[in-house]
Please model this.
Amino acid sequence: MDNGWGRRLGFRRLQARDQEILRLAIPAFGALVAEPLFLLGDAAVVARLGTAQLAGVAIAATILSTVVGLCVFLAYGTTAAVARRMGAGDPVGAVRDGVAGLWLALGVGTVLLVLLAVAAVPLVEALGASPETSAYAATFLRVSAFGLPAMLLVLAGTGVRRGLQDTRTPLVIAVIAAAVNLGLAIVLVLVFDFGVAGSAWATVITQIGAAVAYVALVRRDAVRASARLRPSKGEVLRAARDGVPLLIRTAALRAVFLVTVAVAARLGTVEVAAYQLAYLTWILLALALDSLAIAGQAIVGRNLGAGDVVGTRATVRRMNQWGLWGGVVLGLAVLVVRPLYASVFALDPAVASALSAALVVVAIHQPIAGPAFVLDGVLIGAGDGRWLAGAQLVMLAAYAPVALAVPLIWSGTAGLVALWFALLWFMIVRLALLTYRARSDTWLITGATR
Model:
């Protein structure tokens, strides 16, 4: 670990393996939470325009985040590929894999730009928005579509930095970009009165700036390694091929939460409101634990590239311990702040009561979620995407019938609690399958490429 960071964070006495995990995980966590926190400020700016405008932006943002979220394979796949090359002592190959990831991101982003711009109105209408809200949502979505190539370049660029064992640079870029986005939104929306389009253009401009920063960094790396900035067609196709299983994995994972919110909506207005607040809490905790998964991607990819199976096993064991104890700490924290949290974020007494009950189950999730997230990251770093895709489909099949049965048996707060227990069942199945895979030797393939 960098001595300055080690002294400031108090990690000097930790073992070298722990230091490496935390060196990568802590900045990764900062980068993960920076954008959501600043987006809350962006939402506060739009809220000043009116309820219809805020609702429209919320609908458009849901569509946009789903599209971008499905493309997270650009970050995960690039991390694994670059880390393997670096571990194998092939910096030129690492940069070339990173460049291929950027070109793939640009191509996918351009296609999605066209599709989203054309399909903006049908997509918004499919979510059942009112005519007034739909107009704002369609406007925001059409403008935001122009930022999709940049957004995906940022994903791929982030993957390159992580593969190079650098999670601090993405943190710096994320914080600067989020702050710039908020500032531009204030100027374009409140000063120049551009409405929801101004908020969307603020995001587009910011994402372009962040993409330029990542491209510049990769260009610098390419110059240093004497690597070409134009990949071959085969390199781009290989990056696309490796990304397909991760795309399937992510889509199946998102389907789990689409099923969950659909069930919550059937339980009632109070229950779906409480579910949303509990879900946002779960997501924030997931980001904290997912930072360990990101560290796992980078370290495991590098170790396997170097042929270090023993070191890989040792790292996985240690990261599992971090995941378990991190989950225990976060779960206890939820239980401690639960009464205050429910009263602050749910002004309706009925919502507060339902939320308080749901948060108990959210707390129980955490010691299971920690190791599950870590092992997911480990297998992504190992390039085990095909198995992860199949396993995630099995998890979805195991979860969906249980979740869909909830409103047939329970209602009200009892139904909401049962739904979160159904999600707990999903996490248990997920951890069991990932543990089974991690204990095998099948995924331990060494070398510069899988």
